[in-house]
Design a protein that fits this description.
Layout lengths: L1 H20 L5 E6 L9 E5 L5 H16 L4 E7 L5 H13 L6 E7 L4 H14 L3 E4 L8 H9 L4 E5 L10 E4 L2 H19 L5 E6 L5 H17 L2 E7 L4 H15 L5 E4 L2 H14 L10 E6 L2 H8 L5 E4 L5 H12 L5 E6 L3 E3 L6 E5 L5 E8 L2 H6 L2
Parallel strand pairs: 3-4, 3-5, 5-6, 6-7, 7-13, 8-9, 8-10, 10-11, 11-12, 14-16
Antiparallel strand pairs: 1-2, 1-13, 12-14, 15-16
Helix pairs in contact: 1-2, 1-11, 3-11, 6-7, 8-9
The structure holds alpha-L-arabinofuranose (AHR).
Length: 384
Amino acid sequence: MRKTLSVLLTAAMATSMLVACGSSSTQATTTAAAPAETKAAETQAATTAAPAETVAEVTEAAKAAEANGETITVGFAQVGHESDWRTASTNSVQSALSKENGIDLQFVDCDNDSAAQLEAVRNFIQQGVDYIVIDPIVSTGWDTVLTEADDAGIPVIVIDRTIDDSDKYVSWVGSEFTNEGLAAGAWLKAYVADKGISEVNALVISGTTGSSAQIGRSNGFDKYVEEEKWNKIDEQTGDFTQEGGQKVMESYLKSYEGKFNVVVCQNDNEAFGAIDAMKAAGVSYGVDGDVIVISFDACTAGLQKVLAGEINADFQCNPLQGPDCLNIIKKLEAGETVDQKTFMAEPWYVAEDKLKDIAYTNNSGKEVTEPLVVVDQAVVDAAY
Ligand code: AHR
């Protein structure tokens, strides 16, 4: 019965992907896992909903499976609730891994506590769930617990951030954080050249230390700091929160007021806090100000600030990984091969209609030229 359901769901996902191929909706790039000798292929995945009649068919099958006690049980160990991005991520996973789709989701908010996250995963193993989904707070310290999941025969799917010290998971879907940092550096280089700004004195408010989001964004931006010989005055963590961003900026203002002209906030919520602190101190920022504000995420509230000229550039991190996650589970249920890596597609947003695109060498060593999207109300309205 569970297999019947999985076949129907897989069909629904396939239909959904066919529908989406002709559209320009949110897309992700995937890297195929097998066979090993095959060159990693870049394909397009999509998140458009399946047609109504297919969904109805799936819902019926889900109901029947539930009645037979055959729903798929998934444990999800989420990072926490630190940002607008995180809320969107939780919503995306909860609506995709839903009862209607035949899934009983056990959700744990780990409140940015790595020990709590390991415990949550161990509890899922003890419960004997069918799948475990992890958004890892930090990128290391995972091999033991993933070995335990492996020994228990429970497939683990990793979303958003990466795990860097274990390969005992079946699939990962998330962002190329280093490219986000590189793109921010490439944009700043082009922007200051265009504005005739000869010196860059930058402050960085980084994300949770040891998370792959922080590591990638810092590494990417630092490449430009080195190459362009910019002065990075300081980098302190704001833990991806508004409160953290505000506190770090308040402390920066005590030490460096009048000495910096760029602040890089590693997510929108930190940028909101930093902006509040600069406002309170009478420091001008944004398009018409003395301090260039760079942010990451591009959530609705972030893009509103880009539209208002308070954030100069916002590099999207796409949290809508729920449908990809569902797709992976369905493929595994059907005994199919899954992609080892799926990269979310992520546009770069700017406040001013000056630079059309940025060119840089991405984290795969490829020369790329990527468009800059000038934010208008329609862009804000379409955001997550
Ligand atoms: O891992 C993704 C990052 O984590 C997002 O940039 C941030 O908002 C979140 O807290």
